[in-house]
Design goal:
Blueprint: H1 5-15, E1 20-22, E2 25-27, E3 34-38, E4 45-50, H2 54-69, H3 78-94, H4 96-107, H5 111-132, E5 140-141, E6 153-161, E7 164-168, H6 174-187, E8 191-195, H7 202-214, E9 221-223, H8 228-237, E10 243-247, H9 250-259, E11 266-270, E12 276-279, H10 285-297, E13 309-313, H11 317-329, H12 349-364, E14 368-371, E15 386-389, H13 396-399, E16 406-412, H14 415-423, E17 427-428, E18 430-434, H15 438-447, E19 452-455, E20 467-468, E21 470-471, E22 474-475, E23 477-478, E24 488-496
Parallel strand pairs: 7-8, 7-10, 8-9, 10-11, 12-13, 12-18, 13-16, 15-16, 18-19
Antiparallel strand pairs: 1-2, 3-4, 5-6, 6-24, 11-22, 14-15, 17-21, 20-23
Helix pairs in contact: 2-8, 3-5, 3-7, 4-5, 4-7, 5-6, 10-11
The structure holds adenosine-5'-diphosphate and magnesium ion (MG).
């Protein structure tokens, strides 16, 4: 049992997963290529991982196609398929400690967060989706055909798996994003090639072992770690992939959508956000302050639905800004394995450059840091939790996704003007409303163009709740019954009687 951070890192170097999973075998890359993954809090090496390239994607797609058409998967009863998926959830919980440690070391997030959120949410997603396997029913339909007035028909719909699915996921919730993607694909009977993010491959590879242990047949889930421009691009372009599901930046989402036109594969996208969190004077302001702080600082702010634009009714503005600044100052930043850590480092040098770049840009544009505003010295990609004021609607900090612990607070007076500002974004992923006036809350909830609107709460994720974006925040929904549409074709069968 590792007791120190360096011992935990050494244990992962010694025993962590390193190869890729293709057709039920753990293999090296076809070209023998490898890449490194590091602890973003220390910079230490965690593992040398097989690096997938185009040929590995080809091999994995062939394995997925074979498993779909020839293997036991499609012949299995839906009930049995559901039980295997349920077992994956059980195994995740049985290995919660190990998965949380891998997640913390590879991504940087506090282990308490991984244990409270990432791991149980992942298990629950598989449990929830397991139940859908037996409930993918079509319907019966009575068609009226104008040019066949006397004919009678018996018609019905069948819902069938879309086929071989390519799934490309990000680094902010590595295990949970794998679960969000794999759960519905398996429930619907698809087969998968999953590419984890190059920054955080470890937990998805460990999940691959658990999927095998659960008894999911060989080739149903293939996992090819590697870079986006190579492995990811090959998967998105592959002519024998029927559907691609992507979570990541809006920039790459657009690229994936264009790439997918080659064979018109189906596309679902869960992309960026710049979500407004709105506090009215009639709210429980203390609860709103706590919720708004959580809404931006949770998971280092590396959350696509982070509440990064804070709108506060004028007469409470100073109190709220002070409250969130106090909350920010109280956040203990450190290594995720240390017990008192509230916030870990950003995931990578690239992400560190991105966030500090936005902080510098904000300073240039006249945004004032009430607290935070800069990087923290030392090894690791740490930045200060930051509260900015004096931001105009046209400022970069109000328009672009930072994907870090940085919130811009702005006062408002008029609700129509507020609604306009809240919707003045290319994004439409999430929003928050804090008020005790229920009519106002519901009216505003319907006016906001976002896939999720929280009222008097923030960051509620559950397997049952659809999640996804309006506008440039994406196509389609993750989770809930909604996500099944991403993975099913509907067939009409018409019988002349
Ligand atoms: P970030 O820049 O924050 O890492 P990305 O959208 O670039 O976010 O990455 C999300 C996922 O998309 C990762 O798995 C990454 O490897 C992958 N990716 C990046 N570029 C491409 C690409 N051109 N084609 C396919 N996948 C890509
Ligand atoms: Mg990128």
């Amino acid at each position: 049992m590792a007791t120190t951070i360096s011992e935990a890192e050494e244990l992962v170097r010694q025993t962590g997963p390193k190869q890729m999973l293709i057709g039920g075998e753990w293999v090296e890359s076809a070209e023998g290529a490898t890449f490194e993954t590091h602890d973003p809090a220390t910079g230490d090496l965690l593992g040398v991982i097989a690096e997938g390239g185009a040929e590995d994607v080809n091999r994995a797609v062939r394995a997925a196609r074979f498993a779909l058409e020839e293997g036991p998967w499609s012949k299995m009863s839906a009930s049995e398929r559901g039980r295997l998926i349920h077992r994956v959830g059980d195994l995740i919980m049985e290995n919660a400690e190990e998965l949380a440690t891998l997640e913390t070391l590879d991504n940087g997030k506090p282990k308490a967060v991984a244990l409270a959120a990432d791991v149980p949410l992942s298990a629950d997603l598989f449990w929830y989706m397991a139940g859908w396997a037996t409930k993918l029913n079509g319907g019966t339909i009575n068609p009226s055909v104008p040019y066949l007035p006397d004919a009678e028909f018996h018609s019905y719909t069948l819902r069938e798996p879309v086929g071989v699915v390519g799934q490309i996921i990000p680094w902010n919730f590595p295990l949970l994003m794998a679960a969000w993607k794999l759960g519905p694909a398996l429930a619907t009977g698809c087969t998968v090639v999953l590419k984890p993010a190059e920054q955080t491959p470890l937990s998805a590879l460990r999940l691959g072992e658990l999927i095998q242990e659960a008894g999911i047949p060989d080739g149903v889930v293939n996992i090819v770690p590697g870079y986006g421009e190579t492995a990811g691009a090959a998967l998105a372009a592959h002519p024998d992939v029927d559907k691609v599901a992507f979570t990541g930046s809006t920039e790459i989402g657009k690229l994936i959508a264009r790439t997918a036109t080659g064979n018109l594969k189906r596309v679902s996208l869960e992309l960026g956000g710049k979500s407004p969190n709105i506090i009215f004077s009639d709210a429980d302001v203390d609860a709103a302050i706590e919720g708004a702080a959580q809404g931006i600082f949770f998971n280092q702010g590396e959350v696509c639905s982070a509440g990064s634009r804070l709108y506060v009714q004028s007469d409470q503005f100073d109190r709220v800004v002070e409250g969130i600044s106090e909350a920010a100052k109280g956040i203990k930043v450190g290594h995720g394995l240390e017990e008192d850590t509230d916030m870990g480092p950003l995931v990578s040098a690239e992400q560190f450059e991105r966030v500090t770049g936005y902080l510098n840009r904000g300073a240039e544009e006249g945004n004032r840091a009430v607290t935070g505003g800069k990087a923290i010295d030392g090894p690791g990609f740490f930045v200060e939790p930051t509260v900015l004021v004096d931001a105009k609607p046209s400022d970069t900090i109000v328009r672009e996704e930072v994907f870090g612990p940085v919130i811009a607070a702005m006062p408002f007076d008029d609700i129509d003007d507020l609604a306009r500002q809240a919707n003045d974004s290319h994004y439409g992923l999430a929003a928050g409303i804090w008020t005790r006036d229920i009519s106002k809350a519901h009216r505003l909830a319907s006016r906001i163009k976002a896939g999720t609107v929280h009222v008097n709460t923030y960051h509620v994720f559950a397997a049952e709740l659809p999640f996804g974006g309006y506008k440039q925040s994406g196509w389609g929904r993750e989770m809930g019954e909604e996500v099944l549409k991403n993975y099913l074709e509907t067939k009409s069968v018409i019988v002349g009687l």
